[in-house]
Amino acid sequence: MADLARLLSLPLDIDVLQNERATLLKAISTLDSRRNELAPISKLSPELLSEVFLVIAAHSRISADHSEYLSPSELRLCTLAVCHHWRDVARSCARLWGYIDFSRDAPERVREALEQSKATPLVVQANLRSRHGLQNVLLALKDISRIECLDLGFQVSHFSALRPRLVDPAPALAVLRLNCDNSAVTLGPDIFGGEAPSLRELELRGCVISNDSHLLRNLTYLSVDEVPGAGTYTVLEWLVTLESLPLLQVLSLSKCFSPPPEPHLHELPLVQLSELFSLAMEGCIEDCADILNHLIFPPTPCLEIKCYRGESESDVASISTLLETLGKALNRLPSAQGLRAMGISWRLDGVKFRATADEGGDVSPSSEDSDFYLAFAPEPLTFGLTLAVLDALPTADVLVLDLSTPLCHCPPPAHWAFSADDDWAGLLRRFPAVHSLRRIQYDWATAVFGLLAPPEEDAEDAAGSDPDTPASVLQRPADRDLLLPALHTLGFVNTAFDIPAIIPSLMHLLRTRRERGRQIQHIRADFCKNVLSKMQMLKAVGVEKVQWDGNNRFEGEEEDPPFVPRARRSRGD
Description:
17-stranded mixed beta sheet; disordered C terminus
């Protein structure tokens, strides 16, 4: 009777039955396919499956901004919540439990993970200003002998709570990064009980450390930044410290120099760092020059120097000292690859010189070409000093010149850089191999066009034959050589191509360089207005390619919304 009742309850329509049957078959097929996808992984041995889990877990140690970043909570979900077999393997893998989020995980979860990870080396990274950060790190420091990387961001109040836990030896510690962002903390001789024999990487910000500290031994990486006045070193003290670090590969010293009590009292020693491949410094000109002058290092792929004048330093004398020292440092490199082998970033009173690899006009670290960026600050720097800086750098090999921000905070010609054509000519002559000139902006474009146009044999005849010849060309010496002879690409930004002064100067430049066999082949325009209307005109004078980003507005300017006419309503609506 029960079977008959069940049959009577079924739909009598055969179409309904067929639809329900199809739905059930689809659900069964889906379950089978999922089971089949996981079946090969489930057949792996526990040892191999553990290695797969560890490969996945490594993605929790990369930057959170990376597209492949996997949070520790997601890691637990994909290993513990799939099936019983995976859960059993994950729970038995001690190394997997060592991946802990000390900033975000609840203390109960951290305590469990520390127990499950057993004797696995720990990487402790945390911002102690987070909700559970301090409590979680204190839990980890109970077993400090397991920690191989300690990376903490904190304030002075946090360090007071940490200090009692930092007195035990740390035999496995290889990386120590401490960042105090509101004041300064002192790392005394008792830190880690005076024993951290495996330490190779030390990065300190806002921390005071004595130059005879046991932490400054056997390092391959040293970075010290923003040390308060009482904890800074003199150049002599830094050189003595560096003498004890012959294996150093990366060195960064920023805002950590103090003036000597009695200048020139002691002769500075020469320090050889034969393994060094990256050097960065920030300080007054004299300190940077002294360090550079007394370090002996191989040709380095990365040199970054940021300088500012000290209170007692004069313009000419101190800058000359630095330029001489910088020239010596650069001369240690192979001459032909001097600029290409290095990433140079040198700031001096707001003037920044930076070289990076480039290919085809776009920044690409793998290319052999070079970029040279010259950015002017609002405060003036004499043109003679600027040229002296350029003379100290191997600019003859530069292929792409980017005048990034010569845009004045006052209208031209008030800015010193635009006072005379001869100044610009003296600057551009130092870049004979440049093929691309970038970021030409509207307020100085005509001055550049006048310089780059070939010199006329007779300026008056040129004016008579071409009424559109710019005045800047007529005022230029007739015997001047052609500047940037290899130039074939112009890059514009924030320029309106309908400004009356722009097009005549640009057309004259394109026409005359084509006649001299120095044709401009490529024009690129970003955030420029009315480019489309001038494309045919530009191609008529030999430009092979005009590349426009389609933004008919200046950078940072809001584009007008498209006009949408309102529909007219009839009286009957």
